Structure formats: C-alpha cells, structure tokens
C-alpha cells in the first residue's frame, strides 16, 4: 500500500468521524417549512404519460432519482448508478472483465437485455451505441449535466415506441440554473489503484425571456488489474494457478505446447534455455523439452487482464431558451462527449502453428504440427476513441380555447455516435506462416526467412521454442498488425406533439395527447481490410455492415376521469393509449396500452396496467455483413458417427433429408452463412402490472408501495451455431433446424454425395422468448425534529418469482421452439458470461439520509440475494489433481453441494421424446451479499461544500464463483476493496 493511499483513506475516515461528532454538538436547526397556504400545481411532464398533469403519481410505477440522491452514491457515471437500482439486471460496464466491450456501459432492466430498455434524454431517445444492436452507451451521457433520472418499471411502446419493452429511462438534464458551480472529485481503492477523478463547471443565467446553461465536465477512471486482487489473481481461486484441462489456466503459455511425431504434446522445460534467437537450434536442444502436463503447465493469464478498464471522457452540454412571444418559446440543446479508453487482455496465442523442419528454430528435424505459443510480453489492447454528439431544436407553447388548456411542441433532433477501435497485439497470419517456414543464417550471421535462393524480404524467423526471452521485439514487429475498425450510428428525428383538455365528464376533464414522429436510423461497421479477409489471428473476421431504416409513427393517449369525490373513489381514472408505427424494414405494427388509477381515499391508491410492446430489429440484426465461414463440425449422418450407428431414428432422419446409404463424411468443416437478415420481424411483448400505494394519515411522511409485474417476450431475435443446427435437426427431430441445412446430393462439393453444402445460421425470429414475473415493493419515510434535524428513509426492492421460457414450463419440458426448457432460472448464475449474469431473486436498497443545519450524512445498504451456479469446474479440477496428490480432493468442498444428484433431460435420439437420467451435478451457492456505503457533507459559509464518502465500508468481498468468466467472481459484483472519495463543490 502506498503512502498516498494511506493518507487518502485515513483522511476520509477521520473526516467522516469528525463530521458526525460536530453535527451532534451543533445547535443550528433546520429551516422549517412555513408555507401553509394552498398552492396551485403547475402542469408537468410525468414519465409514463404524454399528457401534462398536476399529479406526480400516475397509474404506472416510476422510480425517480434526484440530483441530490445521485451525488450521495459517490459515483461519477450514469451507468454505475443505474446498475445498482433494484430492478437492474446484468449489463456492460467498465467492470466487465476479459472481454472487449468497446468501453460501453449500458442498463438492463428486469434481465430482459439492454436493447429492450428504452433510454431517453429530456424525453427524446438517445442514439444507439457503436454495437448497432439497439442498446445505449450511457457513458456518452455526462452525469455532471443530469438533474434527475426517472425509471419507468413497465413496458410503454404505446407511448414511446420501439425498445420500451421492459422499461423506460428518462434522464432529465439541468435547466434554469442561475449562477456558477464548480465540482472537483477524487477517489481510489484502499489498495491504491482505480483512481477516479471528475471535474465539472456549470454556468447559467435567466432573464424574463432568456435562459442559458453551459456545463463542461471531465472524468477519468484508472485501471484495476485482476492480478491485484486475491480472488482474481488466478483463474480458479483456491487452486494452483497453472491447472488447465480440467481447470481454467490456458494450455498455451510462453513455453509453448507442441505436437511432435513420436513425442506427443511437449513443452519447453522452463528451467532450460531452449532455442536461442539468431542461432541455429541444434538437435540436442530437443532434450530441453518434456511432456506437457495439463495439471501443472497451464498459463495463468489472469494478472494480464483488467478488472476495471481505464477510460477518460470530456463532455460539453449547453442549452438555451428564448421566449419569442408570450406563449411561444424556442429552445435548443447540444451534447458532445469524447471518450478514450482501452481494455487489456493476455497476449493472443499463436495457434495453430506448423513449424517447418527447415526452420532454424526447430530442433526436431520434422515438421511440428499443432504448435501453440503465447508471446506474453505483448498483451492484446482493445482501444476505443469515441465521439458522441446530439443537437436538438424545438418550439413549444400553449394556448386556451374556451377555457381549455392546450400545449404543443415541434422539434428536430440529430445525433451521431462514432467510434474508432484500434487494436494492438494481433498477428498477420500470412507473415506468421512465413516466419515459421524454412529459414537460414546468412553469411553475415543474420537470420533470414526462406532459402538462400528465395529470401523473403524483411521477414524475421520466429522463435517459439525459446521461452519468453526467445521471442524478440523484432520477431513481434514482423508479424504484428494493428487492425482498426470504424463504427458509426446516426439518428435523425422530427417530432410534433399536442396535448390538452377536451370536455368535462362527471369525474373531471377528459384530456388527450397526440403526436407524430418521423425517425431515421443509420449504422455502419467497417472492419479493417485484413480482418475482413480473415488474415488477423485472434480477430474474428466479418464483412462490413451498413444499413438504415426509417419509421413514421403516430400515437394517441386519452385520460378519462370516470369518478370523482364519491364513496370509495376520490378519483377513478382510465388511461388509454395506442401507437401506430410504419417501418421501412418490416412494415406496420400497432401497440395499445390501458392503465387504471384508482384513488380510493387520501391514504390508498390502486394502480394497474396492460399493454403490448415491440422491439424493431436493429441495424446490426438486419444488415450485419454476411460471412460464409468454415466452422468445425461433426456430421451426425456420417456412418461412423456414434449417434448414427446407435439410433435407427437418427438414421431414418438422415435418409429423409437425402443422405445416401453408406455415406461417410470427408469434411471436418462446413459452409455456414452468418450475418443479418433483412426479413426479420419485430419482437413482441405483453406486459401487466397491478399494485397499490399506501400513505397513512396516522403517519405523516410515510409511503409504501407494492407492484406485481409480468412481461412476456416472443419472436425473439437470435442465431444458432452450425453444430447446434445439425444436432437439433437429426438428434432432436427439429424441423425448423432441418430447414436450415442443404445437402449436396450429386457430389458437387468434393465428389462425395451427401455432404452438407450450406447451413443458414443468420439471425432469425424464434417462436419462444423470455417470460419474467415478480414484485416491486418499497417504502419511504420522512420526518423532521427540532433537536435532531431532518431524517429520510427509503427502501426499494425487486423480487423475481419467475424467469425463463414463455409459458413457464417446468425443467425438462419443451419450450415454444421445441427445445428442452431449463425451467425457472431465477436465483441462478448462468456460466461463462464475461459481463456477469446473476439473476438474483431479490435485490433491495435501503437508504437513510440525515440533515442538520450545515451537516448531512447518508448510509446506503445494497442487498443482493444468493444465486446458484454449476460447480463442475471445481469438482472436475479437484478430482484431476487428486490423482496426483489425494489431498486436493478436499477442494471439492469449495462447492456448496458437490454430491448433488438431479435429473438430466435429453432427447431420445431422432425424436422429440424427452428422457430423464439421474446424474451428479455439483453446485455452488453464492451467498447473499450486502454492501454498505456512507457519506457525510458540510456546507461552508462561503457557498462551498465538502463531501467525503466510503463505498463498501466493511470491505465486503464478492462471493466466490467457480463458473465466472476468467476469474473467480462475477463481474456484476463490486471490485474488492473499499473505495474512498471526496468532492468539493463551490457555488458562485
């Protein structure tokens, strides 16, 4: 721990204690609310309705996070705040480890997926991220400019259009600011890393007719390496760092892994020199190699990876408003964000390699096939250089007709997101082949590629048999390539809205909102030419993506007051809405919604809703560049395949698709077409909510709510791997998968009739999808005392009762796509996700705030319930090690239940019949986790404020996960360590 770390940590801890002591002893009282006069409520915009209204509580459940609450989190990114709300599911962030996320940070409500959550800023949808899949990169929205975040916990396509399936987020920026304000923030982990700096300056002013605001902000997040935390320093915590197959260490490291005829898999003994650069490797050097041991020779890649990716952002936000006439106002706003960052992973393995027998660095005298080597001094770095900007201009106003109020607005928006993705640590396959081919030492003692009569100019022979020091910078420079991809998304929209009062009903005045929108979305993804040609080792080849679509929409919302001031109904209000959308990509869709707001009395509000929603196919899903790849596969219909030999049903299924009797496949790779599908239909959804809000008269300042929700998503968009398609067709009698396979019945492919000639693995709509059901509940309590100040408590929770296939089939039953269902997966952690994937049954946040004169403090407790995961990694690795040392068998106890026996469900080969077979399936339970965050502040007499805080006060470690990707804790938990921060705010 550095001296700097100790000083920052100790200073903040001491200051928090001083603030608490000083506040307890001060005699300054809070100002009391003195106004007891009735107030006329202005009409406001409320998320979940397009009608301006006086009531903030609508029929739809909305969570609002004020600017003050945002500051209490101690966070500097919008995404980080939203990831901690109870309704959030796993999503991309800078904490995503061992994955190239392009630096994006997103939000995923209700575990539905980030592209099924609509994100708006000031009521207008934000431009999609550089992935072109429909999600939004929240790091492109400067938190310094945010005044409030509203989260609608219900589908709302009828009001807002596509993507609003599982919720809507509206980020409201600061406005009507008069004066100037400067903020300076710094934080870091107790380990001395992950330094986070943020600075912003805001200036604004107002007159009778003009208002303006300018916000400038800078944030910088420092890196945290996986090797700097015990739980992530090795691939599988609790085991030796170098165990692979089984295990999690890589079988490819700096001492190689080679297949040599007669010797099998071998590795350079780390204690031996091996081949030396610039020298002919003598045959005797072969004695420096020994058999590869998968239990001890694996490579620990974890320390090379980031736990937190470094990132730097600059942003500018400006807005102006001018009252042109008494009832007409012009407004405009501009956002600009520049983001630069990178993600580091362990060096790219060079594999597969064929090292020529004539290479000077081959001591074996025969071609070495299946070679693999990792040049660990040259890690992979995925860079990101992104610019996001949005311009909006609008006119709005209001007028009265026959004492009826009407409001209107028209606006134009243009937005663009552009990202350059430079990459380092990748290799040009053509040059790799040259560098491992024949080579020699010339008369001047320089190693050359080729032969004396056919020298390859500039080529440096590659030594992969000399360990990490045998692979030189010159060798790397010859084979290295730095591909650059360019991604771009643009959005252009014209909107017009009109709302107002219609006529009086017995329950009140009927109101409406009507609007029109024209929007165009464009996206492109241009790979580096070498990447597109498949010549970059480790970089997945793909062809350019370029496409656009437009949509014309109209919506209508009606607010119908049914009853007012009668027994058991202070008010009863029905809201109806519908949206018609005409897409150039797929056609038309109409989505209705109905909601009911029943105010029984001053204490009890009952609310409910039903609605249909949709998600239009994204640019990448529609137009992703086609690629005809050659994935490895096993043909089930080959007469030497065990499934074909052992099942008459499989054989008959093969014959039914034109496979000739006696066919034996000669291919190890097949032709599979992947990419976008312009014929995709939209995903569809049905959502329902029902709940109540209770505000008892006997406890002033207290409110409680409970809301049940149900969301069903069908026609989901996705794709299948080629082998999955083959297996589903012949082993599971899935007619839909069989339709994607074409066989060559005349022998045109390779002269062997019956071979698979094509597999269509493009994006498509699946009949099934996702269904989730559960409850949101919470309470808030606010009270004030003369002697102790103002207290506020708030609880927000989400309980997931079901998450899984549509129709809620039990485990082992078939879902709508004819696949075996996993049943209810709420409370489980799916394996192998680099973004993290826990589906907590319960997430809950409890916050206590206190203010007394110039002092304030808050405590937040964030709870995540336990989740269950497979523990196969631990079980298999422990037993493999026990064969060498029996004491390792005790490591199976890292699993919560290593001896668990449950049914496995499989298809009877060639049929849709499901059979259950008992099997050992060890599991591990990640226990419930509670994080505690504290903050204290003091407002100075000179208009300054000092804030100090500690996140993860009790230094809670994430629970051990045996199936987390790349290390031993899931990326959705907090990075280990206390995080200390301080902020100074100065108002002018």
From TrEMBL:
State the residue spans of region: Disordered.
813-840
Chief localization: membrane
For this UniProt record, the keywords arranged alphabetically read as follows:
Cell outer membrane, Membrane, Signal, TonB box, Transmembrane, Transmembrane beta strand, Transport
Source organism superkingdom: Bacteria
What topology does the record note for this protein and the membrane?
Multi-pass membrane protein
* Domain TonB-dependent receptor-like beta-barrel as annotated: residue spans: 373-953
Q: Which PANTHER family match?
A: PTHR47234, TONB-DEPENDENT RECEPTOR
Q: What family classification does the UniProt entry report for this protein?
A: Belongs to the TonB-dependent receptor family.
Name of the protein in its database record: TonB-dependent receptor
Origin species, per record, is: Pseudoxanthomonas suwonensis
Q: What is the lineage of its organism?
A: Bacteria, Pseudomonadati, Pseudomonadota, Gammaproteobacteria, Lysobacterales
